[in-house]
Amino acid sequence: MKQFLVVLRYELKGHFQNKVYRLSTIFVTLLLVIGLSFPTIKNLISGDDNESSTNTDTQVEGYLLDGHYLLVDEKGYLSQDVINLFCDNCMKDVSTQKEAEDLLTNSSDYDAVFVVTSDLSYKYIVNNQSFSIMGYDNTTYQFESLLRYQYQTIEFEALDINFTKVMEVMNTSIQKEEIVLGKDSTDNYMATYVLIFVLYMMVLLYGQNIAVAVASEKSNRAVEILVTSSSSNALIFGKVIAGAIASIIQFGVIVIAAVATYHYNYDAWNGALDVIFKIPVDVLITFGIFGVLGYLLYAFIYGAIGAIVQKSEEVNSSAIPITIIYVIAFMVTYFGMMIDANGILLKIASYIPLSSFMAMFTRVSMGSGVSMVEIMVSLVILIGTTGLIGLLAAKIYRMGTLMYGNKIKISTILKQIGKENKKA
Amino acid sequence: MKLEVKNIKKSFNEKEVLHGISFEVDSGKALGLLGRNGAGKTTTIRILMDVFKANTGEILLDGKPFVRKNIQIGYLPEERGLYPKKTVIEQMMYLGELRGLSSKESKTNSDQWLKRLGIEEYRKSKLETLSKGNQQKVQLAQTLVANPDIVILDEPFSGLDPVNSKILKDVILELIQEGKLVIFSSHQMSYVEEFCEDIIIIDKGNVILSGNLKQVKHRFGENRIFISANNYGLVELCEMIKQNLNGQIKHAEVFKDIVLLELQVGCVRNDIVSKLIQQGIDIEKFGVYEPSLTDIFVKEVGGEE
């Protein structure tokens, strides 16, 4: 145990001293903090902040014009009051179309010209037609809303009907209370997907790191000193668990920073990212247990791969088979999640250790009717397999790392381990 | 403390590489473990270090089965290697703690050995920035950091200049004087002769020679004399001796700058001298031949090392 703690401390220190580890943690954290603060920063720069939200109360929700425009309304179809409902000082009145076109051509202050030709028709003049994300320019849609609103106001008033009242009736909000018997898969969909993807990336990145670290010890010959100074169990378990702790700390720092930033900027986001950040505690606990065990399982396998190869450059090619298996496990879970979280595909995958840590977590998070017995059976299989693979990896580490020169077959090592065990 | 290795056999992939290795060594003495490359020295050492298990045979310490984890062993492998990107003190402390020292003890011992070997100025340097000789000294320092009872040194002098070799030689002599049990493997026979009271020569997994070095030398020198003459060349002299002393010598050969004679049992050295003088030979050198370890090694193992 003491040796394990010594290895753990040494390896952890190595991770924390690693510049790539520190810089990548800082970089990703900063990126998320800046990204999640973006709406607040944007509001601060544009000066919209509180003032704009006050104005919004008097404006027509969903039809706001965003930009600066020139308005030619010779007959005065549009009233300033109605325009103010749609935007705040966004229209500059110009007498003629010619004057407006000149201004638009020579100044970059304006985005377009609206020439109102009747109460239900207009011309839209732009220098270059722009496209929105959805593939069309929604400025015209918003202006048409404005024009329609003006027309409706006048027509209703002609009929002696209070249009504001009509709008209130028309826009009456409906209160919905949704009751889902069982689990609503859509609730945790995004959170489950994000967590599984993060786990997927962590295993791939740290698994490779562990394999390269073991292979490096072999290529720089430090391994002979190590295996004759300590038990191989302490060495491989120390290395792998140190990698797990380092990655959990890195992940934790990033997540805490992201959650804190999101909460700080919650008003600016208006709860838009709740689907990602408001993860139920039971889902997080399940993710923690299954995620850590799955990570350790693959980390041990990658450690054993590092012991088999001769040089760290060979790690990538030797790790291809297990990487393919891992990608398949991820894809099975992902498609299982998309198709049916209670389906047979995820059920089978949730008992196979190489995929159960993702599949069982997904079932618990999104599916319904997962009994505690099922979870415990899957967990016991996963713990047992991880422990056995860990011990096997330690044996392979001891045997494989001392076999220099020739390419080592896994079958050769396993035979050798079998013989050594018989002698012991 | 007495370490006994008895009839160790080891196979890899159905091929037996050690065919029954036996030797013993006491505290305060050094055993020279000799053999050509691939003879089985490293495999023997790795069995001692519990990296492999032997197929058959036993290892005893003071008559009881040897349990690796119960004894502190300092091992300097032939395949040198530590962490090139880590500082000297960092990895020395790590290895000290792995071998059971507390953090404080490990630091104290590391500093002590770095100072003893004259490399304390590099304690915070990364290993890869040190010269080969200084890296070799760090390797030796890590071997001794946990104050081991048994010290196994595999080619400890490789890569060292004469000044550093002298420092290492003094350290090894100190270890022997302190009562450590030293197993010393090297191809540099002069060092083996200097340190080792006992030797064992392994060839192709077999012990072909073992015992007290002085006795081995005496045995190889027994009934052998050497001679050279001022008035004859070596080849001429050798032929003359073969013709004229046929009944008294078993064998005569030119060896380096002398003629080496193996006498028949019961033959007296004075009679040989008298007869040679009678033959008109002006004797330049004459004496009882004591072979060097290199001579013994080459004779027993054959080929060049």
Structure description:
The complex is a heterodimer of chains A (424) and B (305). With 424 residues, chain A is mostly helical. In chain A, 68% of the residues lie in helices and 4% in strands. In chain A, strands 2-1-3-4 form a four-stranded mixed β-sheet, sandwiched between helices. Chain B is α/β, with parallel strands linked by helices and 305 residues long. In chain B, the strands form three sheets. Chain B has a six-stranded mixed β-sheet with strand order 6-7-8-3-9-10, sandwiched between helices. A four-stranded antiparallel β-sheet of chain B has the order 2-1-4-5, covered by helices on one side. In chain B, strand 4 (56-61) and strand 5 form a beta hairpin. The interface between A and B is medium-sized, with 26 and 27 residues.
pLDDT averaged residue by residue of chain A: 82
- The structure class of chain A reads mainly alpha
Strand content of chain B is 25-35%
Mean pLDDT of chain B: 87
Helix content of chain B: 25-40%
N- and C-termini, Cα separation of chain A: 21 Å
Low-confidence segments of chain A, ≥5 residues, pLDDT <50?
Answer: 49-59, 131-135
Spatial ordering of strands, largest sheet of chain A: 2-1-3-4
Largest sheet of chain A: 4 strands, mixed
Q: What's the helix count of chain B?
A: 10
Largest sheet of chain B: 6 strands, mixed
Domain tally of chain A: 2
Radius of gyration of chain A: 32 Å
Q: Name the overall outline of chain B.
A: elongated
* Contiguous runs where pLDDT drops below 50 for at least 5 residues of chain B: none
How would you classify the quaternary structure? heterodimer
Element-level helix/strand string of chain A: HHHEHEHEEHHHHHHHHHHHHHH
Q: Helicity of chain A, in percent?
A: 55-70%
Beta content of chain A: under 5%
- What is the count of β-strands of chain B? 14
Helix and strand content put the structural class of chain B at alpha/beta
